[in-house]
Amino acid sequence: MTTATIPAALTTGTWTIDNSHSEIGFSVRHAGISKVRGRFSDVEGTLVIADSVAESTLEAVVQTASVDTRDENRDAHLKGEDFFNSTEFPTMTFTGKDLQGTDGEFTLHGDLTIRGTTHPVDFAVEFQGTAVDPFGLTRAGFEATTQISRKEFGLTWNAALEAGGVLVGDKVTIILDLSLVKSEA
């Protein structure tokens, strides 16, 4: 990662996504008139902050079968072959490649892989700060968003609407609200 100034509060070391205090969410246009929102409940990730930004790394893995849109039938469809095909492609991954920005607002460039297809994506990232929780753990908070074309990742299923248009929009907004915990030692 390069060309950014990491906030001083983010000290060198390994930071791990706290799954129970983070959310990987998404929204997509439905029937051209509303949005369906969902989230993934099973995510793992590690941010390693090195002495230089260029040597720092970011890796995240999301279990596709953990999708939750508050509708069991829709979730089953999303896990099936028409969408994520969770049996054949159990994970989505993100690898950070470059970081640009300062003062807590960044653009994170990286590679997103869904259904075995990888494309570059850019997340707009806001650093929310650090805090030590009541258990002595040092936490860092981030919010990040991006928009992807689901068709670019092989998520092409759709149904035509009687009045024209399609049931599921192509553009998917991904919204991350992350709490990372710094590893001790």
TrEMBL record:
Residues 14-181 form the Lipid/polyisoprenoid-binding YceI-like domain. Pfam families: YceI (PF04264). Belongs to the UPF0312 family. Gene3D superfamilies: Lipid/polyisoprenoid-binding, YceI-like (2.40.128.110). This is Polyisoprenoid-binding protein YceI. InterPro entries: Lipid/polyisoprenoid-bd_YceI, TTHA0802/YceI-like_sf. It comes from the Bacteria.
